[in-house]
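Morning run. Coffee first, then this:
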Amino acid sequence: MKRYLYFTYGVACHALFLAVYAWMIAFVGNIGFGLIPTIDGRPSGSLYGALAIDALLIVLFVVPHSVMARPAFKRWWTRFVPQPIERSTYVLVSCVLMALLLWQWRPIGGVVWHVTNPVGRWTLYVLFVSGALLVPGVSLLINHFDLFGTRQVWLHLRGREYSHLPFRTPLTYRVVRHPLYISWMMLFWAAPTMTVAHLLFAVLTTAYMLIAIPFEERDLVTHFGDRYEEYRRRVGALIPRLGCAKEGPQRPEVAADAA
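And here it is:
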């Protein structure tokens, strides 16, 4: 019975992520249709109060999101959370914190840039949609179901031990080491109209991803050793280098990349 409960829990957490991710796309793209809050709704309250609340909401998301992904935390965390649902619980906590951010976000107003040229606007729309599609697309390359905990509960349901994913670099991972981060950045920055609130969101989340890269890669070096070091020498983190890596790691967890 416990295996079925774990499996149901894992699938539910995965489904929650998909729902929150769809909400985030609508939020960042201002596609609320008056039904849900968006990043550029009508400002209310003081400017400094809105800035403080928005920054705090981002910090409340990124700090647990990153800390919970670290091996040292997981070794402590799995004393209380069963191993098969550890990843699903991580996804659940991340989704709840992101939903809180989307729900309590304070629009600020003020236009940083506004692209009026039709070609420029449509280029940014295409980049936004591409980013939104690439996030799940890139995760499928590295095993989407492992990243969101569904593979773990499925293996447990079948009575099989969890095994880490193999060391490989499919498609985009041969060009850059962190294509998922690039996809998130496209989603956050491709805005024909950039407001102060949107810029705050884009800057802070991008800063978080840039800070997270060294921590994530330290864990990958610990896990994969010289193979990841060699991969890192040949392939750029976010900017392609001349020549592509022929081989690299299928990352067992891309914790900082997930919403």
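The chain is about 60% helix and 5% strand. Good start to the day.
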